[in-house]
Design a protein that fits this description.
Chain A: One of its GO terms (cellular component) is stereocilium tip. The complex is a heterodimer of chains A (159) and B (528). Chain A has 159 residues and is α+β, with helices and mostly antiparallel strands. Chain A has helices spanning 15-26, 30-34, 52-55, 96-100, 122-134; strands at residues 59-66, 73-77, 86-91, 108-112, 115-116, 139-146. Classes of the chains: A alpha+beta (159), B alpha+beta (528).
């Protein structure tokens, strides 16, 4: 009835989850595998970086993002914000983060190139990300806490 | 006598000559020595059409600012290019040049007059000065100049000093098909104030196709749409009044325009110019989604008109509002199972929905089990067998015999009006701040305030009236409110991607409440 409601089946996973699954599956494609390319670094142990309180049962993963063009990843929140943490607010189409996959809005950014960001303000977090992206090296290491798939309707509003 | 005046107009069109003596910069120094040679060829007559880009702005007041001078010169090159007087090989988007021409003026007051003067200058003796370019070109160049003047008059008025000159210019050219329209647009610009953004693509395309009327499709919740005329000077509030007038609504209070673009549905603030808002929105989306390999993302949008604030909505008070909006906006919320209601009510409402669909036609009864999703709240369907639902709905249907479709809509609204969740916008969120509440919450924002609802039982756990909400904020991934004062207050942090809508609704309800309070206080003051 309401026109802004996209008429598509809602039984399946929300788009965030689909996106993640597609890219995750891609990492198992044979030619990617041959080049040793993975979305998430498999042998990463979050306990080597964080206490169990910091991890708090969450799915913490390491991404190695290749530097091609701009990163095009936006963050919001920060330790002094209502969110209390640094969270991905947008991944822009065509940027390195988007091309790499495996990271979506809602994921928490916990560390970049080994620097822990869990107690950083928004500005500090943004600066660390920019610095890591502009400094030497062909990639950056991003540790994220993957946001669980949304178990609620998060797309439609009826006014 | 009139004929004489008109023929006089034709002989001597009005120019900015007189105005230029006081307000234009003086011609470059070299002019004096060249007076003898160039006399009569009009090269230094600054108020006439130029054949080359300007080295300096026209107006003294602009010349005084280095930065504005630069912008004025660039704008002139763009005007030149737009009118086809300046070579440009590059293919451009429809509004790229108009953006460059008007952007500076929309930001800096002195440039507004400068742009008017530049356009009028290029429309003055265009045929004489540019004559070497051939008659076809002159016609083309002059017509393009008129397009710019038309666009300009829709964006901002000239200053009080320049205004009479622009008016006289238009008056003298009243035989040009665009002149009367430009005059009118000038009046509207004076009344409604200056726009903030350069012309929207739709405006530029319209005038390039020789159309001065723009019609915009507006969609309604009952699955219909209609075209409405929109002008450059149209504000959202006027647009709403126009729509509610055509639809015979008793009042446009609480109604709003919404623009749907990509995955966002955003309400248009009352005081905003319609085209400014859409421009701003498309620019913002364009920034967020840069062109991929040169392909600009699709920026098509749809305009909706809907009830936004349900403060004074009472079924039966405004029939057209009930039939077109209230019923169709409340129905999907009911079917999603957002309300708490009795089994009896569900039967009754099911029968009423059937009646709205088919009126007295009973031939669809056997199909009821197949269309339960359209008759019964989603989470209740499994509580009875399809045939049991059918039997009860039919029984209730027969009790309402004789009711028309519209009467059924009103009866439906009168039942749900009794619920505290009537007229709400609902949001499913994940809250992480209060361990006493379930993690997944249903939030209703309505005239009572912000209610937290248990999504399973539909129990209202708590309602925070607007007067108790002291602060709120939102991001792309969250929404946050503070209830009570900062020291003893409680906070609610929700994970949602719809924070922008919750933020807007809260802001709108609270500002509506404050306006009402001020009005009441004001009228009390008057009685004294």
């Amino acid at each position: 009835m309401c026109h802004h409601h996209p008429e598509k089946p809602r039984e399946d996973q929300p788009p965030e989850m689909l996106k993640r699954m597609v890219t995750y599956n891609n990492s198992f494609r044979s030619n990617n595998k041959r080049q040793g390319f993975q979305k998430y670094v498999e042998d990463f142990d979050p306990h080597s970086m964080f206490s169990s309180e910091q991890i708090a049962g969450r799915d913490v993963r390491l991404l190695r993002i290749k530097k091609v063009g701009p990163l095009d990843l936006a963050v919001e929140g920060g330790v002094d914000s209502p969110l209390g943490k640094l969270v991905v607010s947008a991944i822009y189409d065509g940027g390195s983060a988007d091309k790499h996959g495996g990271i979506v809005p809602g994921d928490e950014v916990m560390a970049v190139n080994g620097k822990i960001l869990t107690d950083s303000s928004l500005t500090e977090g943004q600066n660390s990300l920019t610095r890591a992206w502009n400094s030497g090296g062909d990639w950056i290491d991003l540790v994220i806490a993957v946001s669980p798939p949304k178990e609620y309707e998060d797309e439609v509003t009826f006014f | 006598q009139l004929a004489l005046a008109e023929s006089e107009d034709k002989v001597k069109p009005y120019t900015l000559e007189e105005f230029s003596y006081d307000y234009f910069r003086s011609p470059p120094k070299s002019t004096l020595s060249r007076v003898m040679i160039t006399k009569g060829r009009g090269k230094e007559r600054l108020w006439c059409c130029a054949r080359e880009p300007l080295k300096q702005p026209l107006l003294k007041k602009v010349l005084a600012h280095e930065e504005l001078s630069q912008e004025a010169q660039l704008a002139f090159i763009d005007i030149f290019t737009y009118m086809g007087d300046y070579p440009s090989k590059r293919a451009r988007s429809v509004n790229e040049l108009t953006d460059q021409i008007f952007e500076g003026a929309l930001k800096a007051e002195p440039l507004k007059d400068e742009i008017y003067c530049q356009i009028l200058k290029q429309l003055t003796e265009n045929h004489i000065n540019c004559g070497h370019m051939g008659i076809d070109h002159v016609v083309y160049s002059e017509e393009k100049g008129w397009e710019l003047l038309w666009l300009c008059a829709g964006l901002f008025p000239p200053s009080n000093i320049l205004l009479p000159h622009v008016q006289k210019f238009l008056q003298a050219k009243k035989h040009h098909p665009l002149a009367p329209d430009c005059m009118q647009r000038l009046q509207k610009a004076l009344r409604n104030g200056s726009r903030k953004y350069p012309p929207h693509l739709v405006e530029v395309e319209a005038i390039q196709h020789k159309t001065t009327q723009i019609f915009h499709k507006v969609y309604f919740p009952d699955d219909t749409d209609e075209a409405f005329e929109v002008e450059s000077s149209t504000k959202a509030k006027d647009f709403c009044l126009n729509i509610s007038g055509r639809l015979l609504l008793k009042s446009s209070e609480g109604f709003s325009l919404f623009v749907k673009i990509t995955d966002k549905v955003i309400s248009v603030p009352e005081g905003d110019f319609f085209f400014d808002f859409v421009r701003h929105l498309t620019d913002w989306i364009k920034k967020a989604r840069p062109a991929k390999d040169g392909v600009v993302p699709s920026l098509t949008y749809q305009v909706f008109f809907m009830k936004k604030l349900w403060t004074n909505t009472m079924p039966g008070k405004d029939s057209m509002a009930d039939y077109i909006f209230h019923y169709y906006q409340e129905l999907p919320k009911y079917l999603r199972g957002y309300h708490q209601c009795s089994r009896e009510e569900v039967f009754q409402l099911g029968a009423l929905i059937y009646r709205v669909k088919f009126e007295e036609d009973k031939s669809q009864f056997p199909n009821i089990p197949k269309m339960l999703k359209e008759l019964i709240p989603h989470d209740q369907i499994r509580h009875l067998s399809p045939d049991d639902w059918k039997r009860s709905i039919v029984a209730f249907f027969n009790k309402q015999s004789g009711k028309t479709r519209e009467e059924a809509k009103l009866s439906f609204l009168k039942v749900i009006f009794k619920w505290p969740t009537f007229g709400s916008a609902f949001f499913e969120v994940k809250q992480t701040s209060d361990p006493n509440f379930p993690e997944i919450l249903l939030i209703a924002i309505n005239k009572h305030g912000v209610s937290l609802i248990d999504p399973k039982s539909k129990d209202i756990l708590t309602t925070h009236p607007f007067t108790k909400i002291s602060n709120w904020s939102s991001g792309n991934t969250y929404f946050h409110i503070t209830i009570g004062n900062l020291v003893r207050g409680t906070k609610l942090l929700c994970e949602t991607s719809l924070g922008y809508k919750m933020d807007d609704l809260l802001t709108s309800y609270i500002s509506q409440m404050l306006t009402t309070m001020t009005k009441q206080r004001g009228s009390r003051g008057n009685i004294k």
